[in-house]
Amino acid sequence: RPRALAESIPEDPSPLLALASRHVVSSRQFDRETLTQLFRLSAQYESTPALMHLPLQGKILISAFYEPSTRTRLSFESAWHRLGGDIMSITDPKSTGMAKGESIQDIAEMFNNYGDVIVLRNNEDRSVYDMLDALRIPIVNAGNGIDEHPTQAMADVYTIFKWRPELLDPDLPRDKRIRVGIIGVPNRMRTVRSLLLLLARFPTAIEEVVIFTDQDSPFDEGQAEELNQAGLSVRVSKRLEPELPDLDVVYINAIAWVGDSYEQMGAELKLSTHSPLKKDSIILHPLARGEELDTDLDPTLHNWYFAQARGAVFVRMALLTCMVRRVSEVMDT
Ligand code: CP
């Protein structure tokens, strides 16, 4: 599957050159061409490990996770290791100057001296923005509060295109477009906010996005309008089950995160082998999962959530490579 995706995209390294030494904070920074070329490089990495010429040898990643993570931290670190680099990791803020009240700007100043790239997760929305002014090395936002998680969204969309590479065709016939269901809250979940922004770069692939939530105001001011202006058709529904047979991609989140809603809507927003899923549909989940995604779906062909977590390594390899090295040094030209 990654080979088919790589071969379906004509190589054009030029959009990737602009990623050199650039901060990655929001999905909003990425246009369709850049994402497409990133997915090509990701798929090359995934299908042909021999391509890796250890381009990050001698470079140091500061992996700063001030909030728990399994996949994001380990997949970033796996990506960096596979590219030949070294890592310094923070997994507990109590073991750093943060516990003594050190400012995030002063921490950023120190990071400049010790590494070449920072990957930051923090439970405050503003954390990554507060660091920017003090930084002379690039930073990747690995989740800032309820704001954004752009590299998760890249892994999500990469998975969709691996599943169906033809969706990248800007002239895709309308009847081949897919319908995407997202179980989650766009203004309270960073995964959903970032994913919607990236899906909006590919409106020719998507007939409609349906947001499933019981929230009466699931969008921030201007959020839905921004998506609609980009050509993405988005609507909200409270009833998942009647719509499931029409959805090609079902993106489910850990519903427990939205508090009271889980108690009220938990039964309605769960997926299992008893759910009326469309025959060829795929399920995505950023994980970690809770009760909303039954393990009985794991051995089925609907399970693309494990492929999604695996693909994140290759997407992050592609992005980190382009941030640190000239892409001509690593692409298969
Ligand atoms: N998808 C995701 O962000 O998972 P972690 O919280 O384990 O990093």
UniProtKB/TrEMBL annotation:
Domain of life where this protein originates: Bacteria
GO CC terms: cytosol
GO biological process: 'de novo' UMP biosynthetic process; amino acid metabolic process
Residue ranges of every copy of the Aspartate/ornithine carbamoyltransferase carbamoyl-P binding domain listed in the record: 22-160
One example GO MF annotation: carboxyl- or carbamoyltransferase activity
Family: Belongs to the aspartate/ornithine carbamoyltransferase superfamily.
Stated name of the protein: Aspartate carbamoyltransferase catalytic subunit
Organism: Ectothiorhodospira marina
